[in-house]
Amino acid sequence: xxxxxxxxxxxxxxxxxxxxxxxxxKKISKVLDVKVTTIGAIIxxxxxxxxxxxxxxxxxxxxxxPRGVAMMLRTVRNRPATTRQELANDLKAAGTTVCKxxxxxxxxxxxxxxxxxRKVPLLKGAHVEARLKYANDHLKDEPSYWEKVLWSDxxxxxxxxxxxxxHVWRKKNAVYDPKNTVPTxxxxxGSIMFWGCFSAKGTGLLHRITGKMDGAMYxxxxxxxxxxxxxxxxxxxxxxxxxxxxxxxxxxxTKDWLKKNHIKVMEWPSQSPDLNPIExxxxxxxxxxxxxxxxxxxxxxxxxxxxWAKIPPGVCAKLVVNYNKRLTAVLANKSFATKY
Length: 340
Hints:
This is Paired domain-containing protein. By secondary structure, the protein is of the alpha/beta class.
């Protein structure tokens, strides 16, 4: 618990004067808006020592001077990956010797917390500029525009993916009880690549990708899954297709196929998974699949397709309705990666 704020000398004198005038503790508390317990402590102090001044409070002096603290804070703001040992070395060079624990406590007291750095896509200058342009171009678009977008992407789902991080309640001596363990195999037990799409109206088809996908396979996927999904979701006229800038997606043959089928494609900034709401849907799918604990790849494919179809349209609609928040976050973070 931190130290309480001390009352001013003038206020202490007023408390004593009111007490001398015959006023009770509760009445003084009400008049001066000070706790009754504080009133009592000040008056007892006056009676015992005939004094109202603040007495020195106990406590060891700070090991790091205010100037040293300012130097530390400036360093971690400019270089967040600086270690406690490096900060200790900097302070030692300036004439102050402290341990790493003191460094950590000082940083925590100033609002800093040691965390694992988030992994995000590498953004070069061209990527940053493209993200900025995309956010500015679409910031004022109405929700009705985003409702006409059919989002797509590929993802890999491992057989024992999210299960490997399951938490259990157990007693200290029950670490290896089978009920408290998660069976694992090398390389995640295998995985499946999927292509999927969705809109504000719900999820489209989920297609298993067999083997290495090339441009011809991608166009076959679009023919057999994109067009039927657009019809099933009743996208109507003027809908827009979103996919990223993977070379298979931007190949001339793919562009020609999209043009031949009169599909309008959204201009997309590279290295921007945080701008594609299907990433949130992939996470939703993986959580749902992990709960059903598939035991082989055939089960995994079946469960993935079942759970993908079960995702409520309301979840999809919420991701799309709130899309402008992503654009605002991109602009607020100067086009760098966001929490999405």
